[in-house]
Amino acid sequence: MDILSLRLFIRIAELGGVTAAARDLSLSPASASARLVKLEELIGFRLFNRTTRAVSLTTDGELFLPYAQQTVETLETGFSAVKGQSSKAQGLLRIAMPGSFGRMYIIPLLAEFQSRYPLVKLDLRLSDEVLDVVEGAYDLIIRNASLADSSLIVRKLAADRRLLVASPGYLEQHGVPATPDDLAVHRCMTLGETRWKFKNGQSVSVSYASTVNDGEAMRKMLERGMGIGIKSIWNATESLKSGLLVEVLPDFPLVTEASIWLLYPSRRIMAPRVQAMIDFLLEQFQPTPPWEC
Question: Same domain for 15 and 77?
């Protein structure tokens, strides 16, 4: 498998045709078609659905594309290093992140990043699901929990902490709990956990009134007086400042080891586009994250 055939595959996917890709790479259409057939024979599956007018990626082709892009960019980075050339940050950068965190803190920064690195194209996935950085062919994953996977590099982006919050209206109607034991008579909201642990050693099993799988949705429900819940400080900080939420049981901090993490595959040569984004995010979130300012 040669790098030109991989480049050809990538350009066909981007341009939507063999002839256009061949012209872009200074190949004849016949040579390009022959290379594509040989590549498909080598890997053992079809990359494109072909008609007389156009080509489109097969399902296997869609899965293979990001790996081909990573391979070509890694090889080109290696060539540049051997030749002593400076390598620019360029190419497709695939990032996954939690939906709420991404909308609040990452998306607002991307215009500045792209002004610094105009040759980098972004492919973003905002989801609260636990995503596989390798299987999903992501260059970088931002998470609020680390992964127990030795094949990944895990780097701390920012400290976080979790606290109990509720709306003033809820507390006025239902009373302010004085100790963790008082939570037994309150409406509690959870992301699925039913036992809350406190640093004083207490562990309270809560009877939850509502459960939700989205942190931002939970915050809005809490703001509207639907109960007491656990929120990360990064998610609740604006609501706390505005008075829509207040901290509950501030003298009884929760047991929490929360942080925001960067995860990326372990490679000897890191693509400049990935290193540029990592350096940019560290610059924005350290030493003090925006929610602590």
Answer: yes
